[in-house]
Amino acid sequence: MRTGGKREGSGRKALDPQGTIVTTIRLTAEQKATFEMLGGGQWLREQLQKVIEGKS
Prior knowledge:
The model has no long low-confidence stretch (mean pLDDT 87). The protein has helices at 29-38, 40-52. Helix 1 (29-38) packs across helix 2. The chain is mainly alpha-helical.
C-alpha cells in the first residue's frame, strides 16, 4: 500500500472558499511578540474584517 504523494482531500484546508493569499510583513522582535500575544494571524484577520464591515 502506498501512503505518499498527492491524495484527494489532503493538505491544509482553506480559511475561505474564495481562497487566500500569503503576504509578508517586517516587525521588530518586540512587535512580533505583541502580535503573537494578541493572537497572530487570526487576530489580524478579525481586525481587518471589522474595518471592512465598518465596525471599527
